[in-house]
TrEMBL record:
Keywords: Acetylation, Membrane, Transmembrane, Transmembrane helix, Transport. It is found in: Membrane. The keyword NAD does not apply. Its main location: membrane. InterPro entries: Aquaporin-like (IPR023271), Aquaporin_transptr (IPR034294), MIP (IPR000425), MIP_CS (IPR022357). SUPFAM superfamilies: Aquaporin-like. One of its GO terms (cellular component) is membrane. This is Aquaporin. Belongs to the MIP/aquaporin (TC 1.A.8) family. PIP (TC 1.A.8.11) subfamily. It is a multi-pass membrane protein.
């Protein structure tokens, strides 16, 4: 029994998520220690069950995220008017609430990214390896496609008639406005992720418990309130890709690049800001 237990522990913990997003970030010792940067390539992960388990968790979480949020969007679009549905506020709550719930559920398994932009930002900060980052992004995109596909399966006609939850730049706004909204919106999200999971902050403010999924979900809610009228709010390339593939109309692809370029720029800026300005990591003397 001891041998079997050791094997299970190795499979689960040999290649752990470098930067958990959630309660796992708060369970470290109060004595702060700067975690070492993740290696660029970690081929040994490919032999660990915990690596594939984390990818499956990202797939399921993104699947559920698209299922609930796109279904909510379709409900609002089908209603005769905003007062007959949950409206824009309800859509924003659906996105923010699902992120809160899903990050809480998956934090201890995969880190609870559920967004390629978040994964990209954490990768730039050397919180996870390139191997894991690429795997996560692939699984997130596949989960998003399946989630949107299930919604279409429930109501194919209304789904196509009401835009399928696909992100497009709204009439009256330029592509530049849409790109800017996605950059700033993703910056807010990824900056919140870094702040809510900062090990140094958790150690310094240990007397003030922080449930990391709550501010992250709330950030998603607020960004949606601000940018739904502009782009429908992407800030998550997997969410935008899944809806665009299943909806598959020309106008859904015309501005699709914005929903990859914008979030990735926003995530990169947030990572740089947190690491260089807030934490000043490059300027710390090595002892």
């Amino acid at each position: 029994m001891e041998g079997k237990e050791e094997d299970v522990n190795v499979g689960a913990n040999k290649f752990p998520e470098r930067q958990p997003i959630g309660t796992a970030a708060q369970t470290e010792s109060k004595d702060y220690q700067e975690p070492p940067p993740a290696p660029l390539f970690e081929p040994g992960e490919l032999k660990s069950w915990s690596f594939y388990r984390a990818g499956i968790a990202e797939f399921i979480a993104t699947f559920l995220f698209l299922y609930i949020t796109v279904l909510t969007v379709m409900g609002v679009k089908r209603a005769p008017n905003m007062c007959a549905s949950v409206g824009i506020q309800g859509i924003a709550w659906a996105f923010g609430g699902m992120i809160f719930a899903l990050v809480y559920c998956t934090a201890g398994i995969s880190g609870g990214h559920i967004n390629p932009a978040v994964t990209f930002g954490l990768f730039l900060a050397r919180k996870l390896s390139l191997t894991r980052a690429v795997f996560y992004i692939v699984m997130q995109c596949l989960g998003a496609i399946c989630g949107a596909g299930v919604v279409k399966g429930f109501q194919s006609g209304p789904y196509q008639a009401n835009g399928g939850g696909a992100n497009v730049v709204a009439h009256g706004y330029t592509k530049g406005s849409g790109l800017g909204a996605e950059i700033v919106g993703t910056f807010v999200l990824v900056y919140t992720v870094f702040s809510a999971t900062d090990a140094k902050r958790s150690a310094r403010d240990s007397h003030v418990p922080i449930l990391a999924p709550l501010p992250i979900g709330f950030a998603v809610f607020l960004v949606h309130l601000a940018t739904i009228p502009i782009t429908g709010t992407g800030i998550n390339p997997a969410r935008s890709l899944g809806a665009a593939i299943i909806y598959n109309k020309d106008h859904a692809w015309d501005d699709h690049w914005i929903f990859w370029v914008g979030p990735f720029i926003g995530a990169a800026l947030a990572a740089l800001y947190h690491q260089i300005v807030i934490r000043a990591i490059p300027f710390k003397s090595k002892r």
